[in-house]
Write a sequence for this structure.
């Protein structure tokens, strides 16, 4: 029997925090995803919104319509069911092109060098070294070789948090900047803790900067074709495969995006956590083959 | 009716009561920081409470009106002048074509709300006209106003004639020497030692310089100690780190145990800092009326007390509606 250990705590009179586990794991993410999906489907009167987290979820409610105690009881039941749900999702795998070692994040890096752990090296050099890689090239390869799970969406304007789909021992981990930057280029591929993130808009940030994508993930005005009508591209549960590109292709994709003509490869897939855990590398290989029709 | 911005002040933006429902994507509810004041301003000029008006931080804008209309100013307390003649806040003000509205320094509070008969006509984005500058969406081109901007209002549906109504002093935001903010402890409260938790409520805090629509930082209290732990995988080494998760509106995060930050209407929806509790919904408006350096005392409350305060807030709003519908 699976032990259900979600911790519940009220965030004022309008929120209920449900923490599936203190530490990050795909199992906790799947439980959060399953619970949030279920709560949305049920349309419980008084539930205003559900925000999924990496290993938690947050229910926003209107206490005029549902008493906090009644809500807690209801959510606990759903959470119990979510703990027993099969760890299988119907989702999609999408490619996101990345221009590693680009000139824009390099410029920003220079500006904020005094806030970094090792002002004398670049973010990539630092990350490669502390993760035991012999070169930046090797590190970049590890970064794009395996797919990533979108385990949370939010912060501002649909920023995806991405969790690397490899064994914990092989996951890239880096601390955030010693003091956060006041600026980060739009579309920067960042990394903090075990998570990658894509900065949807320009702004402050503390994640290490590895590169930049030409592909928009937030469009407040005219939703881009591949956004499926939303302002925000990413969805929790998406699988992402980074593909390294050079300057010429970067420029080309930026141009196509501006004209509304860019369409990244996207394929629908079914992800089964149990199969994934049996043989991670093989399973990932299969996912990538589906993405590219190999 | 249109009006032109002659001087834009520090931070003036179009706001209504916000766009709930997209926080899960990182697009916050937004809307007036002091919802009560915007609602009342709208009622004073015969608008729906959710009509779009202007929110001005610290100093009001200077506006020129193309035609006659009715406006109301609420929120903080500032001298209001129409063609140099002083008017009162919290009651309707009649404006004639060609007149100029301007403000003196704010005497109390931090934000002014301006409602215009009919409400400001800017496109709705995700069901709201509120400006969210980070996402460059809503309001006027997703930004704060600047000199030279021209805004348009909708035709007022109700035939409002100038009435001698005013909102009693006691119902307006109460910014006292030390402002009390009620907090329901919770979320990751258990990460603090008992002594640290007691200190948080015992200490007097002051609003820091980083105080905006996204959040308010508080300074002056003692640093907080943590219960020891082995960092959970993915959280980060600092004792204030958590595995990144969703943040409630009003939640109080304390990076490195140093300075509490209360998330407000334009909150970031998620992040990696632990939170020790949440300012209750009834007290969120008050935060929007606090200027930097203002003293604050956090008061510990239970869920029952939070719900009671919510009822009191709603009763006050109901009373205003009744007063103005007479």
């Amino acid at each position: 029997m699976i032990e259900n250990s979600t911790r519940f705590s009220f965030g004022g009179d309008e929120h209920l925090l449900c923490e599936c586990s203190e530490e990050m794991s795909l199992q906790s993410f799947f439980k959060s995803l399953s619970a949030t999906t279920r709560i949305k489907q049920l349309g419980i009167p008084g539930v205003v919104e559900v925000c999924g987290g990496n290993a938690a979820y947050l229910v926003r409610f209107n206490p005029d319509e549902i008493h906090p105690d009644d809500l807690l009881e209801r959510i606990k039941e759903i959470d119990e069911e979510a703990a027993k749900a099969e760890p299988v999702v119907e989702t999609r795998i999408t490619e996101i092109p990345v221009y590693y070692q680009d000139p824009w994040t390099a410029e920003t890096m220079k500006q904020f060098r005094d806030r970094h752990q090792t002002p004398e090296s670049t973010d990539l050099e630092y990350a490669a070294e502390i993760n035991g890689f012999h070169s930046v090239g090797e590190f970049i390869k590890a970064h794009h070789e395996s797919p990533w799970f979108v385990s949370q969406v939010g912060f501002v304007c649909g920023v995806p948090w991405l969790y690397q789909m490899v064994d914990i021992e092989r996951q890239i981990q880096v601390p955030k900047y010693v003091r956060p930057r006041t600026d980060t280029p739009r579309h920067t591929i960042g990394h903090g803790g075990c998570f990658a993130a894509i900065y949807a808009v320009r702004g402050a940030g503390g994640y290490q900067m590895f590169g930049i994508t030409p592909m928009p993930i937030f469009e407040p005005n005219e939703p881009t074709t591949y956004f499926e009508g939303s302002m925000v591209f990413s969805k929790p549960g998406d699988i992402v495969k980074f593909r390294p590109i050079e300057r010429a292709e970067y420029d080309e994709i930026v141009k196509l995006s501006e004209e509304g003509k860019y369409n990244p490869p996207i394929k629908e897939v079914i992800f089964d956590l149990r199969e994934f855990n049996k043989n991670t590398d093989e399973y990932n290989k299969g996912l990538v083959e589906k993405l590219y029709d190999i | 009716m249109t009006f032109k911005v002659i001087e834009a002040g520090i931070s003036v933006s179009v706001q209504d009561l916000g766009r709930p429902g997209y926080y899960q994507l990182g697009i916050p509810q937004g809307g007036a920081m002091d919802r009560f004041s915007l609602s009342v301003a709208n009622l004073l000029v015969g608008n729906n409470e959710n009509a779009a008006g202007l929110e001005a931080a610290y100093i009001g804008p200077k506006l020129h009106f193309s035609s006659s209309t009715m406006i109301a100013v609420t929120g903080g307390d500032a001298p209001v002048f129409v063609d140099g003649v002083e008017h009162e806040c919290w009651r309707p003000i009649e404006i004639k074509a060609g007149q100029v509205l301007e403000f003196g320094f704010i005497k109390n509070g931090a934000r002014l709300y301006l409602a215009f008969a009919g409400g400001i006509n800017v496109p709705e984005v995700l069901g709201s006209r509120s400006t969210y500058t980070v996402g460059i969406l809503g309001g006027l081109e997703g930004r704060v106003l600047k000199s030279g901007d021209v805004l348009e209002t909708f035709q007022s549906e109700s035939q409002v004639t100038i009435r001698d109504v005013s909102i009693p002093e006691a119902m307006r935001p109460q910014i006292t020497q030390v402002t009390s903010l009620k907090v329901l402890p919770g979320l990751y409260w258990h990460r603090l030692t008992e002594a640290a938790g007691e200190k948080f409520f015992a200490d007097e805090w002051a609003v820091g310089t980083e105080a905006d629509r996204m959040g308010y930082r508080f300074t002056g209290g003692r640093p907080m100690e943590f219960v020891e732990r082995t960092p959970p995988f993915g959280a980060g080494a600092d004792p204030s780190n958590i595995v990144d998760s969703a943040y409630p509106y009003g939640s109080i995060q304390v990076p490195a145990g140093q300075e509490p930050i209360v998330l407000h209407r334009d909150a970031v929806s998620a992040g990696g800092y632990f939170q020790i509790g949440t300012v209750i919904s009834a007290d969120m408006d008050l935060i929007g009326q606090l200027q930097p350096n203002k003293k604050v005392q956090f008061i510990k409350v239970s869920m029952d007390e939070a719900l009671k305060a919510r009822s009191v807030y709603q009763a006050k709003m109901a009373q205003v509606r009744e007063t103005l519908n007479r």
Summary: The two ends of chain A are 39 Å apart (CA to CA). Residues 118 and 126 of chain A are 7 Å apart (CA to CA). DSSP finds eight helices and twelve strands in chain A.
